[in-house]
Hints:
heterotrimer, A: 4 helices, elongated, B: 2 domains, two-stranded antiparallel sheet, 2 strands, Cation:proton antiporter (chain A), sodium:proton antiporter activity (chain A)
Amino acid sequence: MSPIDFVLTVIGYILIGIGAFCQIVAGMGMNRFPNFFVRLHAATIAAIGGSFVPIIGCSLLALSFEELGDVRFFLAGGGFVAAVFLLILAPVGSHLLAKAAYFSKAAVLQPKVVDALEEDIRKGEVHE
Amino acid sequence: MSELYELIPYLVLSITALASTISVYLAIIEKDLIKAVLYSAIQSTFYALIFYLLMVPDIVLVYIPVSVGLLPAILIIAVKKTEKYEDVTGISKTTSTIILTLVVIFTLISGYLLLLSHAITFAIFPSTDIRTLARWFLNTTLWWNRMFSAMSPESVTAIVWDYRGLDTYFETSVMYLAIIGALALARYIEIPKKMFKEEAMGMSIIGKMATRIMVPMILIVAVSIALHGHLTPGGGFQGGVTAAVTVSLLIFIFSVYFAARFFKINTAILLRIIGLIGIILAATITLIIGFLTGQQAYIFQNQPKVIAQIGLPYEIGGNLISGTLLIFNTSEFLAVVMGFAILFLLLSIPEENVMEVIRGEVE
Amino acid sequence: MMIVEYLTFFIPFYLIGIVMYVVRALKGPTIPDTVLSIDCLGYALAALLVIFSVYLQSPLIIACAIVLTLWIYALDVYMSKYLEKKELGE
């Protein structure tokens, strides 16, 4: 194994480990947070930390995995494309869902400290 | 370590089977129909993982769009246009708890038995024995003998479009008839032509911007899935449903008027017919050549066989195209994406316009 | 031993995460909660698909992860369109 392959393998495993940690943290947050808008934070960790990071890690790992032969570049390329899609699409999806849930009052907003958006709407600065 | 390595797919399969069984059960007894649709979407994602672990990526590529994407979309549209809650009195809560407990126990026992049998025999998953028929198919699609092979390393596409081409042709015509039926139901209904402000319609500016960035990338991925269908998992239908995401995103995030700038319904029908004509031409091209030159040939013939010496070239300039398979995949891609475009456009026309036409007909 | 066999230690963590998302998705008091957990579930499954593609050493099955990501996003869009209570095409 060449030095560059060794570095790629180590970085890949570190990223996959970060992903595993983020999955556990996000799962706990998803179950223990009180309402929908707080759970959005856990969803951020799940999408970016728990999925985007390990996919990049897996692609790096695949690049250094010489037993696969030339097909490993296909695997790494597919992984990078999936990661880029996830990086762009997951936050946008969460944003659309949160906006719809807020304005349609579908989500419970019960343990509430302050709602700045509601005040802005009342003042007339923000329209739906 | 290596025992654990063997065991991990079993662990994943057991958890997936358990979770999908529970979500299916909850989807059946749920009164809120939207929640039922979401539960069935959970079950579909888990089934995708099961199919993936059993090494059938072609099925995954069909199953995910159809059951995670299109089925919930159409059901959500139907629920939105009708009633949200089911009106039937269901079973009581204690009964449902008992049934759920039984389901969990049964799944756990069967998973345990699976693990046990694996520990005894080490030969269930994935099976290393291939039956004679499967071995024959695999050998002839992968075997580079010009007289027997379909000249495609992807055995699924070879079987679907070469060995069993007539079956696939009739499946395609079933979907064509379904689209024709939808068009007949929605006759005289047109997308209303009106001036509209792009900012005032659709969803927020963030969604619009991301969609503008993503649509070309999604199209590239879809076209590559379709055009590499004879080399890697995928094919015409798989690429077509992936490209159908873009149509639904344009309609739902911008508006149907914005999408109608790119897709007129009549143009979509025309392109779909072009795709179907492509399929028919590719199916009969050897027959036509044989008829003109006076040689023996068959319908859906791809490569030359022993008794019928006509066939299409399997490579151009060193690039493998597998004869008719490339034409089939391209035409099917066009037909499928345009079919779904027609369906989404018809379903998203505002209800007032539809009702106007229907009332006008009734009176 | 091959380098990918060390992935065995990480896969159970992803499974625990997925099980927790499923619990929230089935429990979720409101519809947006369920959709959000299906999001997390789908993205975690996409990551798991890529990991299994390396783990089982079959590179050609990678396209499934891309398609899964796309359709989970499309499910988001459908559900937020449903919640907005507008006409579908407007």
